[in-house]
Amino acid sequence: MQKPKISIYDFTDCEGCQIKLIALKEKFLILGKRVDIVNWRLGQENNESGPFDISIIEGAPITQYEIDLLKKLRKESKVLIGLGSCATLGGIPGIIDKAQRKKWYKKIYGDNYRPRGVDALPLSAYVKVDFLIHGCPINENEVIQAMEDLLAGKEPKYCDYSVCFECKQANNPCRLLDNFPCLGPIIQGGCNAICISGGSPCYGCFGLREDAEKKNLIKILEKITDQKEIDRYFSMFLNKVNK
To answer: Domain ends where: 151, 175, 198?
Structure first.
């Protein structure tokens, strides 16, 4: 029986999520016995072209070449998975306001730099994505679970609890009750509340819960901070909070 063919691609990103895949070590090797990873720039020298049974894509497509490649991979792949916040939400590249980009290009790269990028948008802005593995970086065990489900002919499931549940497990005080902004109630768990445990708020890199009560959280945040700060917190989702 022929093994499913897997491709792993990366667009504009830090490659941290792919490093997480490598960190799986024995688990990834065991998975590799059940599939053929036929295209992975970071992990092997010899790569094959499509079609693929499953394509896993890290990073945001911000150049025309990456956008065209994404559309090509969509046509060549039975299942397409977004890996990490840059692919699923636009991530860090998508947070910077378009009007501010020229200023930062000049400040970081100098007057002679000519950017090739267009908008930093998630994969779903251009193609249908079958499953999203959120995180900055990802929880590598979620990758294994999603792949196990797909190989078993099942549809992968998203986490059904919020970051708040993991905060309680970690005995973290609630930021909202202490009048500090946080997106924990509307964000999928899976990160083990690592940011909040370290003293930072939740910015939502693991993605919105399917039943997220966004409007209710906004009402709470409006009592804590101003609209500009609320928009900054929601910038991970590339939209205005009143939509």
So the answer is: 151
How far apart CA 28 and CA 47 sit, in angstroms, is 18
- Domain count of the chain? 2
Residues whose CB is less than 8 angstroms from the CB of residue 101 and which lie 6 or more positions away in sequence, other chains included? 115
Q: What is the DSSP letter of 50?
A: S
> Are 141 and 27 in a shared domain?
yes
Q: How far apart are CA 9 and CA 92, in angstroms?
A: 18
Determine the angle formed by the axes of helices 16-23 and 140-151, rounding to 10 degrees.
Answer: 70
Rounded to the nearest angstrom, the gap between the alpha carbon of residue 174 and the centroid of all alpha carbons in its chain is 25
How many helices, marked H, and strands, marked E, lie in the chain?
11, 5
Residue 125: Cβ-neighbour burial (10 angstroms; 0-12, 13-18, 19+):
middle
Strand ranges in the chain using DSSP code E only, listed in sequence order: 5-10, 36-40, 52-58, 77-83, 131-133
100: tokens are 């501010």
**Residue 129 structural domain:** 5-151
How far is Cα 91 from Cα 93, in angstroms, rounded to an integer?
6
Instruction: Please check whether residue 158 lies inside any domain of the structure.
Output: no
Per-residue confidence at 241, pLDDT binned at 50, 70, 90?
A: very low
| Overall size of the chain counted in residues | 243
- pLDDT score, position 1: 65
Is pTM beyond 0.90 here?
no
